[in-house]
Amino acid sequence: MTQTILARLSPMGPDPGEVENALPGLAALLADCVEGGAAVNFVWPFDAEQALAYWRWQMPGLLAGKARLFVARDTDGSILGCVMLDTDTPPNQPHRAEIKKLLVLRRARRLGLARALMLAAEDEARRLGRTLLILDTRDGDNGQKLYEAIGYVLFGRVPGYSLPVHGGEAETCAFYYKQL
What we know:
By secondary structure, the protein is an alpha+beta fold. Helix content is 32%, strand content 31%. It is built from four helices and seven strands. The chain is globular.
C-alpha cells in the first residue's frame, strides 16, 4: 500500500524555540541521508550526536538571520526534508546566496518535496533581493536532474573534490548557478 505524505513548508528562524524544538527531527533527517550515502559533507561512521552537533553549529547563523531553513513536515509534524538558504555573503556579494543541505528522508523521496523546498528557498531569495544562487552536488547524483529541471546551470566540475560517505576514492563535485 502506498502512503501519501502531505507536507507543509515553513521557514525556520530566527525564533530560538522553533529551531531548538526542530533539532531532533533535523538530526534524524541528516543521519538518515548520510546513512543512505548522501554527499552532504559527512563520512561514515556517523551518528545522531554528530548530526545534532551539526545543527547546533548552524543555530547562531539561523538565529542571526544569516541563513533561512525551510522544512517540509508530515501531517503529524515530523520533519521529512529541509533546505537552507545561506545569505551570509561578503560585502561585495549582497546579491548572492547559497543553497545548502537539501535533504529528504529516504522514505519520503519521489513525492516532490525537494522541488517544493528548492522553490521555497528561491522565493525567499527573491524576497531578500538575492538574484544569484549557487550550489554544489556530487556529480552524477539524482539531484542534478532536479537542479537542471528548475533552471540551474552547470558551470564546472572539480574532480577529487570530496570523499564518499562510505569510503573509496575522492569523487567529482558539480557546481551550479541560477540567476533569479
